[in-house]
Amino acid sequence: MRPGIHPELRSVVFRDRAANVSFLTRSTADSTRTVEWEDGHTYPVVDVEISSASHPFYTGTSRVVDTAGRVERFERRYGRTAPAQR
C-alpha cells in the first residue's frame, strides 16, 4: 500500500434520528459536529436517515407489496403471450 493516500480511520458516532439510537464505530466518515459519548470522550457525529434500528426488514415491520395488480396491468397492456407449442 502506498503511504499517504488512504483516509484516516477514526472513531465516529452514527446517530439514527428516526429510532433515537446512536452507536460508536470506526469509520473514515468526517463531520464538523461532535457529541460527548458515554465514556466521556468527544467524537464526531454523523446523522443517518436509516439504520438497522429503524429499517423495516430488521424491525420485522416490513410489508408485502401486492404485485398481482402490476402483472395484470402488464398483461392487459401488452397481451399475454401464447404458450409454446411442441
Automatic annotation (TrEMBL):
<dbReference type="InterPro" id="IPR042105">
    <property type="entry name" value="Ribosomal_bL31_sf"/>
</dbReference>
<dbReference type="Pfam" id="PF01197">
    <property type="entry name" value="Ribosomal_L31"/>
</dbReference>
<comment type="subunit">
    <text>Part of the 50S ribosomal subunit.</text>
</comment>
<dbReference type="GO" id="GO:0005840">
    <property type="term" value="C:ribosome"/>
</dbReference>
<protein>
    <recommendedName>
        <fullName>Large ribosomal subunit protein bL31B</fullName>
    </recommendedName>
</protein>
<dbReference type="InterPro" id="IPR002150">
    <property type="entry name" value="Ribosomal_bL31"/>
</dbReference>
<keyword id="KW-0687">Ribonucleoprotein</keyword>
<keyword id="KW-0689">Ribosomal protein</keyword>
<dbReference type="InterPro" id="IPR034704">
    <property type="entry name" value="Ribosomal_bL28/bL31-like_sf"/>
</dbReference>
<comment type="similarity">
    <text>Belongs to the bacterial ribosomal protein bL31 family. Type B subfamily.</text>
</comment>
<dbReference type="InterPro" id="IPR027493">
    <property type="entry name" value="Ribosomal_bL31_B"/>
</dbReference>
